[in-house]
Amino acid sequence: MSELQTEYEIKRPAFDQLKGEIIFALEDAIKKTGVDIHTLSSRVKTLESIQSKARRFEIKAPLQELNDIVGVRVVCLFLSDVPRLLEAARKCFKIISEDDKINSENVELFGYMSLHMIGTMPDEHKGPRYDHIKGMKFELQIRTILMDAWANVSHHLAYKKELDVPRDLRRDFHALSGLFYVADQHFEIFFRSSQSSQREMANLLGAADPAANRIEINADTLRAYLAKKFPDREGHAGSLSVLIGELAQAGYRWINDLDAKLSEAWDIFVEYEKQNRLPESGMFIREGVVRVALGLVDDNFERIVHKNLSEKYMEQVLEERRSFLEKYNRAKGKKRVRHKSSKAKK
């Protein structure tokens, strides 16, 4: 066993702990920013990878000199997320150096856009838990999902620099790189426009009664409407998209029509939710409220929601709903009778 291998095996537990501490700190910091990321990944370089890099760059003491033995990568969705994640990293760690390959004009970095940082755990992290990783360096990369895709493809092709690309392929390689760059820019533009649209819809729906507004149902309008209608309930982006499709199939095109139908079904839904409490929160999410409430008063919508069920199970679902409605109406009728009797006695 070589001296380097022996040293690596001794230090490997510390490398693994450092990686875990970085991920733990970053997960909490990213959550606080409110940024939705694509992936948060980490790795410790293998001994073979360290030896290969040491040979390429003629490094005599790689375990002391290499800064990227522990590496962490955050892949986000949009360009505007990068500076927010960078600021979060600065608050989490002691940053020694930053290398902005996203805004760099250096053509030698062709096809490898990313924000790289070298850092250590903060000085205030002291005690037995941190003593053996104190001062150990790591590399943190932040990039968008399209930057990551381009980096992975170009890495697979072994083209890291423009000079690596055969001359007869450079034009196509430039064109592909440009397409990825333009797509990243336009996803950012689309994201900002979407955010602006959602704010406009929220303001519009907040200014007046939804029933008075003939507003078409789409992701932005429905999200804003449900947030206003059910502020104490959570929403789910994936369920929202499915719900929009179901509403369209059932003929609901306008927010005011949906609002009128939900108002009609509301008392029935409240009773249904009391009798069918969910295990965790006890409450249906916003999209679930719409599905259940409309299903209680609209046979066609109920069939669309359960369209993947067999005819046998569909009839079972409809029968359970009819049974609930009959019990609800009988109970409601008894309440009316009691109410009339009490008024007569007075």
Biggest β-sheet: strands ordered side by side in the sheet: 1-2-5-4-3
CATH class of the largest domain: Alpha Beta
CATH architecture of the largest domain: 2-Layer Sandwich
Rg calculated over all Cα atoms: 29 Å
**The number of domains:** 2
CATH topology of the largest domain: Beta Polymerase, domain 2
pLDDT averaged residue by residue: 87
How many strands appear in the DSSP assignment? 5
Question: Ends: how far apart?
Answer: 99 Å
Shape: elongated
Beta content: 5-15%
Largest sheet composition: 5 strands, mixed
- What pattern of helices and strands is seen along the backbone? HEHHEHEEEHHHHHHHH
Count of helical regions: 12
Derived structural class: alpha+beta
Q: Percentage of helical residues?
A: 55-70%
The H-level CATH homologous superfamily of the largest domain, spelled out, is: Beta Polymerase, domain 2
| Uncertain stretches of 5 or more adjacent residues | 336-346
Summarize it.
This protein is an alpha+beta fold. The protein is built from 12 helices and 5 strands.
